[in-house]
Structure prediction request, 280 residues.
Amino acid sequence: MRTLLERYRPFFEGEGTGGGEGGADDGEGGAPAFAVPEGFPDQFRGETADETIGKLFGGYQEVHTRAEGLRTKLAQTPAAPDSPDAYTFEPSEKTKPYFGDVNNDPMFGIARKAAHEAGISQEGFSNFLEAVYGGAIEGGLLNEPYSAEKQVNSYMEAAGLDSKAASEALTNSLAFAKGLGEQLKGVPDAMKDQVSATLLDLTNTAAGNFLLQGLSARLQENGIRISGEGGQQGALTKDDLKKLDSDPRIDPRNREHPDRDKRYDEDLRKRYDAAYAHHF
Prediction:
């Protein structure tokens, strides 16, 4: 690459300025006439060499000043932490409900590594996560954080129950879910734990509990009760009792019945006897 002096030497020496053989036309005192090279920027062109040099120098000073400002700005730009583990994040009140222990979350570890590789500062990292999650919340892209209290309140409101009745109903749902998980047929041994866990997960939401109670009621209509089930509405009705009269699960002689679904159920028998005492 040619230097500045090599690039613009012709107009100092009068070379290539169209002055004829041997150089430019002589000026006053026999000195070469001043001319700039072809393609020379107009903003730096002057009537004399001094004027042209002055404009060039002014341009150089402007570029130098800008470059120095950029160097200063880069020097003041916060650097990335020494390691990915050094990144921390404290969610705002807006985003905090959507995070658990964020600093120990596996996904947060991935974000830390990516930020470190990109050279992002601690401040930039925090601002970025807050902006991304804040925007997702505002756009309705994130599911509402789970709240057991809110789910219970939603259940009570939808069912029209007070706290005592709701507690009993939810306890029965849990018993039904556990019993159903234990008594389902056709589930491979390798999947039984996962199936049971899926059923129990339903008890964590208002909708899940209504689903379980709907299944329980439907089964009861067909005379099918799940071992350990407390009963959706507490005491058995007269129709329930009629269906249970011939149910092998209320007969103590069936303690060793080979079919688990027909085996004597002591809890069911107690409820059966209590219901008879109540209705008759």
Q: What stands out?
A: Residues 4-76 form one domain. The radius of gyration is 43 Å.
